[in-house]
Amino acid sequence: MLTRWGNGSHSIDRLRGEMDRLFQGLSEGLAPWTGLIGGGVFPALNVWEDERGLYVEAELPGLKMEDLELLVSGGELTIKGQRKEAGGESVTYHRRERERGDFTRVIRLPVAVEADKVEASLKAGILTIRLPKSDSARMRRIEVKGS
Amino acid sequence: MAEKTATLQKTPEADVSRAERTRAGRAYLPNVDIIELQDELLVLADMPGASAEDIDVHFEKGTLEIHAKVRPRVTENTRMLVQEYGVGDFHRAFEVSEAIDSGRISAEYTDGVLRLHLPKVEAAKPHKITVKAAGG
A131 CB near a chain B CB, below 8 Å? Predict the structure, then answer.
């Protein structure tokens, strides 16, 4: 179908409406929630869930907990950190492939979580964040009683 | 600022059909730094999720080969919401042109990083040659 844009103000409104819908679609529709709403692409994340919680995992070899800052706020999880230089700038590198520098990754959480009960562990370079779902987000099994 | 320009995907190993390779399946290429120090080559390999006893290091005829066995961390029927990287073994081989004292190679595995020390043989080390003044 051919759409004609007139000169009248009503068509500007219509255009605005279209734009709003488009942006709404981008922020809500396409990627249901995983929106890379901030920061870069490092570290890569794996996310899974069970009935009790959400689990976010990242490979961060060489990092210690004190190099990391985790924040859960407003339905978002922020992973911030710094990967330090291994050998310093003065040495000769034959290969230099390992990531270094500051990073920030922000993801929107798909369900409400209990922010004060979030736990994180860092073992052999694997960061695992466990976010317990809040009661309202938990799937309830409803008993159907026969009469 | 200094935002990381990282690759989102781990690199799957390209060629796994080499003769000496007996393990089946897919492996990932670890990111590696190779640093030249005065007495040794220091190899740092990112191999997260392994444990020291599951890492093999071989050095033979100038070829360094590293392999880390990585066990799956979630069960097969886990409901993944996002999967940006795969989990599996790491494997990589290098040709080392420098003369290495293979008997003294040592390795540590800390926080998911393998640190390999490849000591140079004496002859390969730079020697400062003192120029003496010829007596007259």
Answer: no
